[in-house]
Design a protein that fits this description.
Layout (H helix, E strand, L loop, with lengths): L15 E2 L1 H10 L4 E4 L3 H6 L6 E2 L5 H8 L7 E4 L5 H11 L5 E4 L2 H7 L10 H14 L3 E2 L1 H9 L4 E5 L3 H6 L6 E2 L5 H8 L6 E5 L4 H12 L6 E4 L2 H7 L17 H18 L2 E3 L1 H7 L7 E5 L3 H6 L6 E2 L2 H6 L1 H4 L6 E5 L5 H11 L3 E5 L25 E2 L1 H9 L4 E5 L3 H6 L6 E2 L5 H4 L8 E5 L6 H12 L2 E5 L2 H7 L30 H12 L1 H8 L8
Parallel strand pairs: 1-5, 2-3, 2-4, 4-5, 6-10, 7-8, 7-9, 9-10, 11-15, 12-13, 12-14, 14-15, 16-20, 17-18, 17-19, 19-20
Helix pairs in contact: 6-10, 6-24, 9-12, 11-23, 12-17
Length: 538
């Protein structure tokens, strides 16, 4: 895909890519970033298997971290709304040189014979179903696990999700051990090889991958996935626990060494490649290949000390949500940890998902010299005028002609927002602004005002009014103890920026949960019809 779209005038047409061209790139393993630039909920309704959700509104914030090579082949996709063209031109403004629009959008993909998938993180979920189908991963029904608990059997339940998900709701008595931590931690948590281990998540994928990880690593205990996770537990009429905080224990040197040997053996079987820091230095140039550098340990370990240039992505979530952080299919992934367990186990799954994946060897503790949270590179924001939260509050009290526009997430807006603030999606600004009251002055905000600052010139062009940025965003407003409100009080845009997952939260309809399970059961057949995945289960 060598045709360039750089520096195109606004009125000049963009290059187009067809289903045949994109499919050929996927089958041949050439790098391609097929990007669905709609909001997450429309994306979740129907998209090609490897179309990564990359919302138009966030391109300036996400592009440089997720698309590290400026000449990578980018193909933008929508469903005929015109977002793909807008996104393509924005990528060009950011310096990307091989940008095209997918011909015909989502409907064009289907019309050309392409398979469409529902939900989010579909490559990972479909892969999990394929693993279970080919390896016959052992599982137990919710009723069977409840019977074990009632009988006070020798059983330990480990929750493979993120800790915050675990705290929302969990199987009674379970312990949080996120997926990539399982092989490292399980022997410490379950020292008796006769103890039964049950792995759960909210639905199916992470429990299947977690269970099979323990099996692949040769854990002597009887291991099984909780069939259908907390969804299956709820559908069985069994009660969940809320607000638990049980976490995995520290690991001894002996346990760590034993786990490291097992994980390396699994990685070798899967075809994981090895790398050194010298390789990383060469690959940082992104010359001819897109390279992603991930630290797969816990967030706390990362912030305490990490390798320069490595992004924190806990290993279990990387396997579960690969396209969210590595949308360039055919790119190179490099993983690091400080124990040889989590990187190797994570890499073993990515290799089976047809990624070129390398694990760093020979690391010294001194190499983990950077501290603190990850700071992604972003496109330089425009220079804008700002207003302090306290000043805005005084303007509101004085009845001045000012309207607040909030570009935060829908979920955050529902939770709390500045009184009178209007919820707007940047991707729908032109069409939804008609629902906003006219004012002499507009103040733009979001969680931190990081996204909102890019929208200031767009609102100025749309209104001709004075437009200011709230300094520090909603976070600064709340921190100042100023008045707030909650609920869907002023919606100019629909709440489509996030797809409501049927396996999250505690108030999902039974029909939605059962429908989600039925959908997962059909993924292997969809993979077969699609034919572009290249997955290979060891």
């Amino acid at each position: 895909m060598s045709q360039t779209a750089a520096s195109l005038p606004v009125n000049q047409s963009l290059p187009r890519r067809t289903h045949a061209e994109v499919r050929a790139a996927l089958l041949e393993g050439r790098e391609i970033a097929l990007l669905d630039v709609r909001e997450e909920d429309p994306h979740a309704q129907a998209h090609p298997l490897f179309a990564a959700n990359f919302p138009l509104a966030r391109i300036e914030l996400d592009a440089y971290a997720k698309l590290p090579r400026r000449d990578v082949a980018i193909v933008t996709l929508d469903d005929g709304e015109g977002l793909a063209e807008q996104a393509a031109r924005r990528f060009i403004q950011l310096g990307y040189t091989d940008v095209a629009v997918f011909e015909g959008g989502v409907q064009g993909w289907e019309a050309a014979g392409g398979e469409l998938f529902r939900d989010v993180n579909v490559p990972s979920k479909a892969f999990g179903e394929l693993v279970e189908a080919e390896r016959h991963t052992p599982s137990l029904a919710a009723e069977e696990v409840q019977a074990l608990l009632d009988a006070k059997a020798d059983v330990v339940i480990v929750d493979a999700r993120r800790f915050d998900e675990y705290q929302t709701m969990n199987i009674p008595g379970s312990t949080s051990v996120p997926g990539a931590e399982l092989v490292l931690r399980i022997r410490e948590l379950v020292p008796d090889p006769a103890t039964r281990v049950v792995v759960n998540c909210a639905g199916r994928t992470r429990s299947i991958i977690g269970t099979q990880s323990l099996v692949n690593a040769g854990i002597p205990n009887p291991v099984a996935a909780l069939r259908n996770g907390t969804i299956g537990w709820t559908l069985a009429g069994q009660a969940l626990e809320r607000g638990a905080d049980r976490r995995f224990p520290p690991v001894s040197a002996q346990t760590r060494e034993q786990a490291a040997q097992a994980a390396r053996a699994v990685a070798d079987r899967a075809g994981v490649q090895r790398a050194t820091l010298a390789d990383v230095d060469r690959w940082r140039s992104q010359n001819g290949r897109s390279s992603y550098f991930f630290d797969v340990r816990t967030p706390e370990e990362y912030e305490a000390g990490h390798l320069p240039g490595f992004r924190p992505v806990a290993g279990g979530q990387l396997v579960q949500e690969t396209e969210m952080v590595a949308p360039v299919r055919g790119g190179r992934i490099v993983l690091a940890d400080d124990d040889g367990v989590r990187a190797n186990m994570t890499a073993s799954w990515l290799a089976q998902m047809n990624w070129e994946v390398h694990v760093l060897d020979g690391l010294d503790a001194a190499e983990f010299r950077e501290r603190g949270p990850w700071q992604p590179a972003v496109f330089p924001p425009p220079s804008v005028r700002r207003i302090l939260p306290e000043t805005l509050a005084r303007c509101q009290v004085a009845g001045e002609d000012v309207v607040v526009l909030d570009f935060t997430t829908g979920a955050n807006y529902r939770k709390r927002h500045i009184p009178g603030a209007w919820f707007l999606l940047r991707s729908r600004l032109a069409e939804d602004f008609a629902g906003v009251p006219r004012a002499a002055r507009y103040v733009l905000t979001c969680g931190s005002s990081q996204l909102a600052q890019y929208v200031v010139p767009e609102v100025q062009a749309l209104t001709g009014a004075e437009v200011l940025l709230l300094d520090g965003g909603n976070a600064a407003w709340f921190a100042a103890g100023l008045e707030e409100e909650s609920g869907e009080t002023h919606l100019a845009s629909p709440l489509i920026d996030r797809y409501r997952r049927p396996y999250e939260g505690t108030d999902n309809p039974r029909e939605a949960m059962q429908g989600y399970l039925d959908w997962e059961f059909g993924l292997v057949a969809q993979l077969g019809r699609d034919g572009t995945h290249g997955f290979k289960v060891i």
